[in-house]
């Protein structure tokens, strides 16, 4: 694996932990609450992390523009749209299996936390809708999956990268949901040979989730999840 890929991974890890530092700096420098400082700090860290990663990947982006065997513009648009629905559908199937067959309670603490911060400061949606999809697809599909795919096969590379993608979200109980989405994004990458396709699909899927839940009261979301669980377990 090229040295720059290791620096990309290190930059991503630093981005995750630097939120604490940037949040503390914002809290000390401006008259804001700790929650607001944490949110603004997160946005700053992820934007800086994105800039660093894109700079490290600039040679790959140049090669991608010169690549002739990848999907055309229309192919990119078509597969991005189709991939969004594939990811949403696979997530729904995985959720059903978790609830009905594995007895795992519905709902994601990660998603709820994101929505809590998005409702407090809408600027926070930059992270789940823009920066996170770009960083995650570059690392988990372009670098990890891409490197493993050259040495093994699609299924081994996709399963390993999808498992890591699931674990990094900090919800091991929902590994099936995150893992299934990871498989879809890996398929889109191989099908089109354009990393921009799973990036667009990931962005769109996250955007749809944010829009769908933004105006819902947390109590109402919990009620709907409980009702869904009751129906599935009948």
UniProtKB/TrEMBL annotation:
The CAAX prenyl protease 2/Lysostaphin resistance protein A-like domain, residue ranges: 122-207
Membrane spanning stretches: 5-27, 39-57, 77-101, 121-140, 152-169, 175-190, 195-216
Alphabetical UniProt keywords: Hydrolase, Membrane, Metalloprotease, Protease, Transmembrane, Transmembrane helix
One GO term of the biological process aspect: proteolysis
Annotated InterPro entries: CAAX_protease (IPR052710), Rce1/LyrA-like_dom (IPR003675)
Tree of life domain: Bacteria
GO MF assignments: endopeptidase activity; metallopeptidase activity
Pfam families: Rce1-like
UniProt name for this protein: CPBP family intramembrane metalloprotease
The organism of origin for this protein: Virgibacillus dokdonensis
